[in-house]
Amino acid sequence: MAEKVFYGLLGYPVKHSLSPIMHNSAFKALGVPAEYKLFEREPHQVESFLKSLTEQNILGLNVTIPYKEVVIRYLDWLSPQAKFTGAVNVIVTEKGYLKGYNTDGSGFLRHLTQDLGFEPQGKEAVVLGAGGAAKAVVNQLALNKIKSVSIYDIDRKKAGTLVEKLNKEFPLCKAQLISCLEDLDLTEVSLLVNATPVGMKGEPSLIKREKLHSQLLVYDLIYNPPQTELLKIARERGARVSNGLGMLFYQGAESFELWIHKPAPVEVMRKALEEAIKEL
Ligand code: NAP
Question: Whole-angstrom Cα distance, residue 153 to residue 180?
Answer without folding.
Answer: 10
